[in-house]
Amino acid sequence: MRLKELVGIPLNGLTQPTRSDWIFALRTVSAGLIALLAAYALKLDHPQWAMMTVFIVAQPVAGMVLAKGFYRLLGTLAGGLAAIGITSLFGTNPWLLVTGLALWIGVCTLVSSLLRNPEAYGAALAGYSAMIISLPSFGQPHLVVDLAIARCAEIVIGIVCAGVTSRLILPKLAADAIISRLKRSILDLADYASGAFSGGDPASLAALQRKLITDAQTLAEMRTYARLEAPSFGTRAHPVRRTIGQLLWTLSAARALHTHAAPKNATLIPVRSELQAFVGELSATPGALDDTGPWVARLDAIATKAREAPATPAEPGEDRVGTITRLTIAADFAEALKQVMRGLDALRSPVAKPSRERRQPALVVHRDYHAAWRNAVRAALATLLVAAFWLTTKWSETAGTVILVAVVSSLFAARPDPVQSAWGFFTGTLLALPFAFLVGQIALPALPGFGWFTIFVVPIIVPAALGMANPRHVGVATAFAINFLAFLSPHQLMTYDPGPFFAGSASILVGILIAIGVFVVVVPADPWVTVERISEAMREDLARLCLHERIPRRSAFESLAYDRINQLMPQLQRTGRKGDPILGGSIAAVTVGLEVLRLRGAQLNSAVPHETVESIGNFLRGLARDLLFIGHGEPQTSTIAVARQYAASIADRSDRPEMLQVAASLRIIAAAMEDYPDFFAKGRG
């Protein structure tokens, strides 16, 4: 791979770096040079760590820099304290020392796997920081405190320089990024709905569906970053959290309308035509979301029209319950999209004081304990085995290998594809090696000084920073920048000494390759196993909705469903098109859950007859039984047939709106489960 390919310069259709990419790159390089100068002024032993820290925490958005820097500092402090404690206890016994460090790395990897970024990064860092601090003091335990203090000082300098420059030099703020991302998501929703209503290409719709879910994940992350940028964003945090669930609700309704179009349904045609015209205009109008007022009013009118459409069939033989069902979904789509637009307005015009409305629950996190324990065993075992080889052979350069095994096996353990992530890290490291040799071993020994350092390094590190701004190359580019500085090891006086340079470089590369081997060989992860665990959790969520005595709030279920789908996405990306039915099933599960909540609400409605309440209860118990116990390939019980039968009989007995809504909910649940029978069955294998 050539360097220009690494940084994202046009190659095979890749785009040029944008203005914001250049700002990010120049800001990051400037902060790195300032951090290095500060480390020189303080005469720190390893000034490269100050500059490396800038590139490690560098992010396009200011809040992301602050978050990553904050958790990097916490992780380093925890790792330093652990290094001091473990070295103080076992410093005289090398085998106990490396065993203690390996166990500590395993524990930190376990915790990291159960958390989300940036907290997960801080936990992983706490593990391998202890190794980075302890091993250089091997045989000299009295030095560990000085090493821990020095490492923390170097990292604090880098964090401060990165944080200050990201906030003061042409900053890109998370609060602005949230609004921009949400506007783009609304237009993407309009594109998806337009394609869904007009019979668009299924592959394009599936890709847009994935993008919308990914954007929802980004919105949730940006919410945390924005609150770090400014505490005043706290009043807008609730609209972001709520809008994430409404995005998912809108997508779920659009999918249902697409799957069950019924174009010849005379009663539905006017509403469907209005929706199709609406989303087409929305996606085609420049600056459409600058003023959402007219769009919200139109959506409100469409939703009202859908709810007030006549229940009597317009044509003989028309499916009455089917008509009501589709009108219900159309009204849901209009209402959900309206709420998303209101969420955008709430972000752009925040209230001066926190709302007195009852506080919404936080996003619920799905924690995969099985995967977390697997990651912990991998990291601890790999570190211990390589450390044992080091102690047995007494090969001094293997210490660097031990450190890199610990870093890679812990840092990338929780990634959806750790092998690919680690290989990208190896590629960037390998690319950095010749550049570091030319600058550090040839140029700087002949032309020392900070001025010459800047002249030689900036033309290399700026393209790398541009690559870090490109999501397609961020992993390789970040590894290149970090390891270029690690190999270079800049000091005020550089000397030509190729022996240690190549020995240290080789130990780093070997360490990365060993970690990759561990990911491949030791308890290899099967994405389908993880997918099945998350899918099973979603089915259990639905069963709890059916059976639990207390009816949860709609927003709480939306948060939970969002988190489950968010966890599925990275795993399904590894499976290609095979994962599309699972993703579609997970979206359908949102539809099922929302309709179950409607049925539970109907049970509490005094206008609903007692026998209907009992019928709903019987159906929900049967549905829960199917979700929990019906296995893949087994014939479904009569639950779906019962849903359709109940719906038809309810509609035959009464024209009251609350009764027709019960019938519609039953039909929607039946249709969703028929569309994705494999998702709603256990053990697809």
Automatic annotation (TrEMBL):
It is a multi-pass membrane protein. The chain crosses the membrane at residues 21-42, 73-90, 96-115, 120-136, 148-170, 376-392, 398-415, 422-444, 450-469, 476-494, 500-523. This is FUSC family protein. PANTHER family: MULTIDRUG RESISTANCE PROTEIN MDTO, P-HYDROXYBENZOIC ACID EFFLUX PUMP SUBUNIT-RELATED. Pfam families: FUSC. Its main location: membrane. It comes from Mesorhizobium album. The keyword Nucleotide-binding does not apply. Keywords: Cell membrane, Membrane, Transmembrane, Transmembrane helix, Transport. It is found in: Cell membrane.
